[in-house]
């Protein structure tokens, strides 16, 4: 039975990572097309990608949008979770449901709704519009993570701080936030990863300044190339690096 378990595990991992392995392998293709047979290896496609100004500009745009939208979603999610967890409000269950509801809605529907709303108020497609869209999809994630992490021990510490004369702002800054640091970091890094890879909202809500996934899509319109494999491999590498950092700095401390 143990042998069958290892075989099943190997097949499952192979099924999951085979496309990624092919992507990375043919990013080193010494030819014009990323298809068999494999001719290489060569790193010229990585040199071309890193020397492409449009790609590097899109990379910077993605980093800015991901960092800014994740920070805003984190702050709003933290305040919403703190309020709904600590204050008894009429209809709080409905409020929590409404905050989490965007997680069940297609990104395409959200993007179309935001595009219509932005056109109505005169906000043109831009990186700011894409950032607002990413806040909309990441806020429910941040709220869910932080709300689930709030326990009775934290509430007791907050009460003790208030009894000692601390203002509400000091309680949030010096008690609530430090006690929720692992959850805050997890929410931020997961939001950053989702924003970094997101395409549909960024595609519909940007025009001239675009994010990296949109720039990659533009490259694919001209056909397959090892250069697209190279930039895809770099995106995958950044995403994996973020998750590895998150695993060793946050999740491990939470388990301990």
UniProtKB/TrEMBL annotation:
One of its GO terms (cellular component) is plasma membrane. Residues 59-246 form the ABC transmembrane type-1 domain. Coiled coil: none annotated. GO terms for biological process: transmembrane transport. Keywords: Cell membrane, Membrane, Transmembrane, Transmembrane helix, Transport. The chain crosses the membrane at residues 7-28, 55-81, 93-115, 127-149, 183-206, 226-251. InterPro entries: Bact_Polyamine_Transport (IPR051789), MetI-like (IPR000515), MetI-like_sf (IPR035906). It is found in: Cell membrane. Pfam families: BPD_transp_1. It is a multi-pass membrane protein. The keyword DNA damage does not apply. Belongs to the binding-protein-dependent transport system permease family. CysTW subfamily. PANTHER family: PUTRESCINE TRANSPORT SYSTEM PERMEASE PROTEIN POTI. This is Spermidine/putrescine transport system permease protein. It comes from Albidovulum denitrificans.
């Amino acid at each position: 039975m143990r042998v069958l378990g290892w075989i099943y595990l190997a097949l499952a991992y192979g099924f999951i990572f085979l496309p990624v392995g092919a992507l990375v392998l043919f990013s080193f293709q010494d030819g014009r097309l990323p298809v068999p047979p494999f001719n290489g290896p060569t790193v010229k496609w990585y040199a071309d990608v890193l020397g492409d100004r449009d790609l590097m500009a899109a990379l910077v745009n993605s980093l800015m949008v991901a960092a800014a939208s994740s920070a805003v979603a984190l702050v709003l999610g933290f305040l919403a979770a703190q309020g709904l967890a600590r204050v008894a409000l009429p209809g709080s269950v409905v409020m929590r449901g409404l905050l989490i509801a965007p997680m069940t809605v297609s990104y395409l529907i959200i993007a179309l709704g935001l595009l219509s709303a932005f056109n109505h108020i005169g906000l043109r497609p831009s990186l700011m519009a894409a950032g607002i869209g990413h806040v909309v999809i990441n806020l429910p994630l941040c709220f869910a993570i932080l709300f689930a992490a709030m326990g009775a021990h934290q509430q007791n510490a907050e009460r003790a701080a208030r009894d000692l004369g601390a203002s509400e702002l000091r309680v949030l800054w010096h008690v609530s936030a430090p006690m929720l640091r692992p959850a805050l970091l997890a929410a931020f890094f997961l939001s950053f990863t989702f924003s970094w890879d997101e395409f549909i909202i960024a595609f519909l809500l940007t025009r001239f300044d675009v994010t990296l996934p949109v720039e990659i899509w533009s490259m694919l319109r001209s056909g397959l190339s090892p250069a697209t494999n190279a930039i895809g491999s770099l995106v995958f590498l950044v995403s994996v690096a973020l998750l590895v950092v998150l695993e060793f700095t946050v999740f491990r401390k939470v388990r301990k």
